[in-house]
Design a protein that fits this description.
With 540 residues, this protein is α+β, with helices and mostly antiparallel strands. It has 18 helices and 21 strands. The chain has four domains: 71 residues, no CATH class; 89 residues, PDZ domain (Pdz3 Domain, Roll); 206 residues, 2-enoyl-CoA Hydratase, Chain A, domain 1 (Alpha-Beta Complex), CATH 3.90.226.10; 97 residues, no CATH class. A six-stranded mixed sheet has the order 10-11-12-15-16-21, with helices on both faces. Strand 15, helix 9 and strand 16 form a beta-alpha-beta unit. Helix 8 runs parallel beside helix 9.
């Protein structure tokens, strides 16, 4: 079997090198230097395989060398194994077939975090806190989360047999679940956060995201929305076409959204709003942070450059490299950087990555103040209204809102899933709560006693935490949120947490500024329209 593996692995390298046949017959026209290099490489692979001190496969050597080659390019060019490539492509789809549950590892147990409303799991009464102990008779305690997810997913209409262990029940539940289509929503939540303010949490850009956004905006307008808070914190980006389609829902027709510039002629592209949707036309605040990247920076950058919304939060990631996907042989894939993104004003989104350590740990930058005061030498650009915006990587917010630090004791409780675990136990003992339910003194005392019983905190630590108003309020809110999750679902949980989110609360105070900005933008539109009309009349 050694020879076929050797041929297969070297062939795989050649295919990766030529980007899955991207260069076609150019492989036959390799230079002498390239042939010599490939000969040396083949000798190296053979020698390492045959003579290394421990057993190593051709596949492992090839994949390691590919990743080493890519490491010399940039932080975002990526080689995908067949499984990783399939997972990545599936994530970009708008749906998959499964049970309809959010799951995670809690105390090394495969635990239901929340069922998704309207799915097979919710119809069968699967609850938050249920432990899936077996899938098709196989124990889950030795499975990774990804392995369990793969076993739960499958073709539409097929069945999967699971065992549920539920706190409070003496015997496990044996369930047979028929897989159905499960939407992968990227507009995670859309609701009225105040009587006249809509709120949208948007998590990534996948197929169908633009339709989700349009539907969410239409829904909120019907509910009386007069202004919008768009939350794209920790939105890592995704598909470029969806970024363009969504930006077009906020910008005037014909407004430039983004430019791409690279080495080849076809990498120079400019994208503008199509006018397929009427622009929002309402005061807009966009909340961003260091996890806002790529397509999310295209969206926030175009909104800022065209003055249709106020950007608030902390400076974004600074990921402005364009990746083009290439399918390789044997199901593998390559995301190759082919260009860079520039905002409408000409700002390069990509941050410097000469030091990968600083790039990934954000040690190369300090948060600007409000108004932004970037380092000397930073290039200044202008928005449509003449406001100053800054290059150098990422989108610098118009108003900086730093997140509030969480006390170490609270971080410890969060890390140990204490609020979730307590809520599961409490909900089993109290089958029904009202929507107006709040943790009272009795619940808080019970939670403190539970922490002591589980050896997660001492009585002294609990008393100290409860003696600090902010810390006690945080604990109350977390308990309320998890109880709501158990009884009313994940959106109810999120609404409770959003009400206490310091950045959201600060962003809601910015709408007078956003309203003033919109008024200036609309005035500019009128002047531009009048000028164009005059020019057309003079021409004729």
């Amino acid at each position: 079997m050694r020879k076929p593996w050797k041929i297969l692995s070297v062939s795989l390298f050649l295919l990766a090198l030529t980007i899955g046949g991207l260069f076609g017959n150019r492989l036959l026209a390799l230079t002498d230097a390239t042939r010599d290099g490939l000969k040396t490489y083949t000798q190296l692979i053979t020698t390492a395989h045959d003579r290394y001190g421990t057993k190593v496969s051709y596949k492992d050597l090839i994949f390691a060398s590919i990743r080493g080659m890519i490491r010399t390019l940039d932080p975002h060019t990526t080689f995908f194994s067949a499984q990783d490539y399939a997972n990545m492509r599936e994530k970009q789809q708008s749906s998959f077939y499964g049970l309809g549950i959010l799951i995670g590892m809690r105390d090394n147990q495969l635990t239901v975090v929340a069922p998704i409303e309207g799915t097979p799991a919710s119809r069968l009464g699967i609850r938050a806190g249920d432990v899936i102990s077996t899938i098709e008779g196989k124990p889950t305690d030795r499975m990774t989360l990804d392995e369990a997810i793969d076993k739960l997913k499958g073709p539409k209409g097929t069945q999967v047999h699971i065992t549920i262990v539920r706190p409070g029940l003496e015997s496990p539940l044996q369930l047979t679940v028929t897989r159905a289509e499960i939407p992968q929503t990227t507009v995670r939540y859309a609701f009225m956060i105040t009587p006249d303010t809509g709120y949208i949490l948007f998590t990534d850009f996948a197929h169908g995201s633009s339709h989700e956004m349009a539907e969410a905006i239409a829904k909120l307008k019907k509910e009386g929305m007069k202004r919008l808070l768009l939350d794209i914190r920790n939105n890592g980006g995704g598909l470029l076409d969806q970024a363009i389609a969504i930006a077009g829902q906020f910008l005037p027709k014909g407004a430039k959204i983004v430019e791409t510039r690279g080495r080849t002629e076809d990498s120079f592209q400019s994208y503008s709003a199509s006018g397929n949707y009427p622009p929002l036309g309402l005061p807009l605040v966009v909340l961003v942070n260091s996890g806002t990247a790529s397509a999310a920076e295209i969206l926030s950058g175009s909104i800022q450059d065209h003055d249709v919304g106020l950007i608030a939060g902390t400076i974004t990631w600074g990921k402005g490299l364009v990746q083009t996907l290439y399918s390789l042989s044997y199901g593998n894939g390559l995301a190759l950087t082919t260009a860079k993104y520039y905002t409408p004003s000409g700002r390069l989104i990509q941050r410097d990555y000469s030091s990968w350590y600083e790039y990934y740990n954000h040690t190369d930058r300090n948060e600007p103040k409000t108004p932004p005061t970037p380092p000397p030498g930073t290039k200044v650009f202008k928005t449509d209204l003449g406001r100053k915006v800054y290059g150098g990587g990422g989108i610098t917010p118009d108003v900086v809102i730093e997140p509030k630090e969480i006390a170490p004791f609270l971080q410890y409780l969060l890390a140990h899933n204490t609020f979730f675990d307590y809520a599961v136990q409490w909900a089993n003992q109290h089958p029904k709560v009202e929507r107006s339910w709040k943790p009272d003194d009795e619940v808080m005392a019970d939670f403190g006693a539970w922490l002591e019983k589980k050896k997660l905190a001492t009585a002294k630590e609990v008393a100290k935490a409860y003696g600090t108003a902010d810390t006690k309020a945080y604990i109350e809110r977390q308990i309320e949120a998890e109880i709501y999750n158990a009884d009313f679902g994940s959106e109810a949980r999120f609404k409770v947490l959003a009400a206490g989110d310091s950045q959201i609360k600060a962003a809601l105070k910015l709408f007078p500024q956003a309203s003033h900005l919109l008024a200036e933008r609309l005035d500019l539109n009128k002047k531009k329209s009048a000028t164009e009309t005059t020019a057309a009349l003079q021409k004729h």
